[in-house]
Amino acid sequence: MTFGSVFQFFSKDLAIDLGTANTLVYMKGKGIIINEPSVIAENSITGETLAIGKKAKEMLGKSPPYIDVIRPIKDGVISNIEATMEMLKYFIHETHNRRTLVYPRVVISTPLSITSVERRAVKESAEEAGAREVYLIEEPMAAAIGAGLAVQDPSGCMIINIGGGMTEVAVIALSGIVCSKSIRIAGDALNEAIIQFMKSKHNLLIGELTAERIKIQLGCACGGSLEKTMTVKGRDLIRGLPVTLFVSEKEIEEALSETLNNIVMTVKLTLENTPPELAADIITKGIVIAGGGALLKGIGALIQKETGLPVNPAKDPISSVVIGAGKMLDELSLLKEISVKD
Q1: Is 81 annotated among the ligand-binding residues?
Q2: Distance (Å, rounded) from C-alpha 21 to C-alpha 18?
Q3: pTM of the model
Q4: Is 191 known to sit in a ligand binding site?
């Protein structure tokens, strides 16, 4: 038995969507087996890792001073290489039941704007975590494949991937990205917009987790209702005391409008740079939205209103990127063609 066959015997190949908000891991033959927040908690005194994923995220805004709760992926790229390596090792080992002799082939999705230095950091992180081969695939391409778009066809298709840290818009044809735009405004920026709105409108200080809950329950891009409300708890900025108030969907639509307008402008700029023949294809096929942002109420209607083009969400928006990367584990020739080259 050769070393290569030994590796294949002991390990299962993986696809990883290393996102700002969440990390998803797809195992060949099994599908998505991990969907955890991209968060790690460390003891700042001893350097010990205390928690990774969901348990670490639950510590956000609640931990004592000696515990650092870190998001090692910022705006879609690695901002803390050591924490990223620790997180990758953890997720890869978890997929193989903590066995150490595992050397999987790994496909990792990366943002369009990633630099060569950042690419090397991602590859080295996966290799340090035990990968025997590492392929990088651009997130819009992976999202398009995961959404079922025919990326190899000469007929063009358009994908908008609204993640946690970045929004990426791409027109794809013949297995390549013909034109694209990206902006470091996405799900996290929507959370921040809600935090700032609550400060300015209600003198209420809320945390990141509360802002995310508001976005999920009341987030709206257009057509918000005054009748749909939720209870929000936070600290009154004037009296300094905990308070409770009601917020409406219409208010949150107002809070998100400026951030969403920046995303819409990015879509329009991409369309302006699209070759005429591919623009004709997009008129026929429409635009597909993927990523967690595709779940925001009215986002498709807003983009359709502003562009005049039909807009549809991917079948599984949150998982589109990792599903697309996972499909490439069975199509190595296409993977080698579309993977990011050094």
Answers
A1: no
A2: 9
A3: 0.89
A4: no
